[in-house]
Specification:
Radius of gyration: 24 Å
Number of helices: 16
Distance between the termini: 73 Å
Order of helices and strands: HEEEEHHHHHHHHHHHHHHH
Strand content: under 5%
Helix content: 55-70%
Shape: globular
Largest sheet: 2 strands, antiparallel
Number of strands: 4
Structural class: mainly alpha
Length: 332
């Protein structure tokens, strides 16, 4: 094909199309280049995200039905309080904001700032409200298996929690991972689950709620939240200071949000850093100011805590138990 033919083909490409250069070749003195032309799609085109709604409705139904069955079968039932229901509803609402139109669409293909904002919603909003809102009996049932309980006991330790959250949040933002999730809904869904779990790990030492896993003391809690606000967010400096865009996935950011890819990347870095610091330090400060009150009133002991300690003691007697070395925990 002659050079003029390629020029004619490019003039036919619709506005907003991407032309990604694929290795060049030369034959008979004619320089040829393959051009991939993709159909122009509006960044704000409506998408109902039926799969997300269906999965969320199924999950909510399982929680409600499971709680009712556990209430009927338990000798010491614990009701789902009004405040817990409100937190659970808030978690579901925040999840819909993060995983449906338009945030999900912009985060998948158009804007790094949208992707960072989506991750922050999952970690800083959905995870803590979910931990505070799930019925106590459902949490007890879900964390009862020995391997789950032993894992949570280890993740409750601040150094382990900080390392886990850092690895997940930074690793999920690697350019190769972002590129794959942009083209694979399955990978994207898996990343959502992993990031939400990382958020639960972040808030576990702060909020407790899991049987026989107490919260950290107020001063330790503040130091832990400060570290979580600084260490995982070191990637923000890379995004802010990088001299060129790092994510080819968001090369069309200007069409979506009016920002060049480099500006979009820099704003994403600022959003990530400031949001983590402001939210976590604010929560830590509130707990620190209430320190005297909380020091005089430890977490109330319920039967589920006692039962979980008995279960750990029984597992300690078994040499094959994964939690044989984790019988009791200090409160701070």
């Amino acid at each position: 094909m002659a050079r003029s033919d390629w020029a004619h083909l490019l003039t036919l490409a619709p506005a907003g199309c991407s032309d990604e250069a694929i290795p060049s070749s030369s034959t008979d003195g004619v320089h040829r280049r393959s051009v991939t032309v993709t159909a122009s799609v509006s960044p704000f085109g409506w998408d109902f995200h039926l799969a997300t709604w269906a999965i969320l409705l199924i999950a909510v139904s399982l929680v409600v039905v499971g709680h009712r069955r556990l209430m009927r079968s338990s000798a010491r039932p614990i009701r789902w309080s009004r405040h817990q229901v409100e937190f659970f509803a808030g978690a579901c609402a925040a999840l819909l904001v993060a995983l449906t139109w338009p945030v999900a669409d912009l985060a998948a293909h158009w804007s790094l700032t949208a992707l960072v904002s989506q991750r922050l919603i999952l970690v800083l909003a959905v995870a803590p409200m979910l931990l505070l809102g799930l019925p106590h009996d459902v949490l007890e049932w879900a964390t009862r298996p020995a391997i789950v309980d032993a894992t949570l006991v280890r993740l409750r330790r601040p150094p382990v929690a900080i390392a886990t959250v850092t690895v997940v949040l930074v690793g999920s933002m690697a350019p190769a991972v972002v590129q794959v999730q942009a083209s694979s809904p399955a990978v994207r869904g898996l990343l959502f689950v992993v990031i939400l779990i990382a958020g639960l790990v972040l808030w576990l030492p702060v909020l407790g709620r899991v049987p026989a896993i107490p919260r950290l003391k107020p001063m330790v809690r503040f130091g832990y939240l400060a570290a979580q606000g600084v260490v995982p967010a070191f990637l923000s400096f890379v995004l802010i200071l990088a001299p060129r865009p790092l994510y080819a996935t968001f090369a069309r950011s200007r069409a979506a949000i009016g920002l060049r890819p480099l500006n979009d990347q820099q704003i994403a870095g600022f959003v990530s850093k400031l949001a983590m610091l402001i939210v976590l330090l604010a929560v830590g400060t509130v707990y620190l100011l209430r320190g005297d009150e909380e020091s005089n009133a430890d977490d109330p002991l319920v039967w589920a805590d006692v039962q979980r300690q008995f279960e750990r003691a029984d597992r300690q007697d078994s040499p094959d138990s994964p939690a044989s070395s984790e019988t009791t925990l200090p409160s701070g």
